[in-house]
């Protein structure tokens, strides 16, 4: 059971990127999920999250620009990022609490994916 991120890269100021996080293995469901990021020399911060009941939360710095969504059938969490700014440059991490087919619940982290926004 693991999370695998994809979709990062280098974009220009104002462009968009779509990050995906696929949960692989014998997963029954994704309970909660979130995207974090960590810029060089800074602490990891929460960017967007799903809480129970599919409520979403966003960091003030990304509200109105980023959207978190999920495909339960595909067990994928997506972060759609638009109007990107140089200050969005960071390594982005997917985090999820999942339940597997043995009904074991655990928190997982993806390996991280680089997003670079040039000015």
Helix content: under 10%
Order of helices and strands: EEEEEEEEEEE
Radius of gyration: 14 Å
- pLDDT below 50 for ≥5 consecutive residues: which ranges? none
Strand-residue fraction? over 45%
Oligomeric description of these chains: single chain
Rough outline: elongated
Query: How many beta-strand elements?
Result: 11
Largest sheet: 7 strands, mixed
What class, by secondary structure content? mainly beta
Alpha-carbon distance between the two ends: 38 Å
Number of helices: 0
Give the overall average pLDDT.
94
Q: What does this 3D model show about the protein?
A:
- The protein has 119 residues and is mostly beta strands.
- The protein is 0% helix and 61% strand.
- The chain is built from no helices and eleven strands.
- The strands form two sheets. Strands 2, 4, 5, 6, 9, 10 and 11 form a seven-stranded mixed β-sheet that branches. Strands 1-3-8-7 form a four-stranded antiparallel β-sheet, with no helix packed on it.
- The chain is elongated and about 50 Å long.
- The termini are far apart.
- The mean pLDDT is 94.
Quick overview of this protein structure:
By secondary structure, the chain is mainly β.
Protein topology:
Blueprint: E1 2-6, E2 9-12, E3 17-24, E4 27-38, E5 45-50, E6 56-58, E7 66-71, E8 76-81, E9 90-100, E10 105-109, E11 113-118
């Amino acid at each position: 059971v693991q999370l695998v991120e994809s979709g990062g890269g280098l974009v220009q100021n104002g462009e968009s990127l779509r990050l995906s996080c696929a949960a692989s293995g014998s997963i029954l469901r994704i309970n909660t999920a979130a995207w974090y990021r960590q810029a060089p020399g800074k602490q990891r911060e929460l960017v967007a999250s799903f809480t129970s009941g599919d409520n979403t939360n966003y960091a003030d710095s990304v509200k109105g620009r980023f959207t978190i969504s999920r495909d339960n059938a595909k067990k994928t969490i997506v972060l759609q990022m638009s109007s990107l700014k140089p200050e969005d440059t960071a390594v982005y991490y997917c985090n999820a609490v999942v339940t597997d087919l043995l009904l074991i619940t655990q928190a997982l982290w993806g390996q991280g994916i680089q997003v670079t926004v040039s000015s």
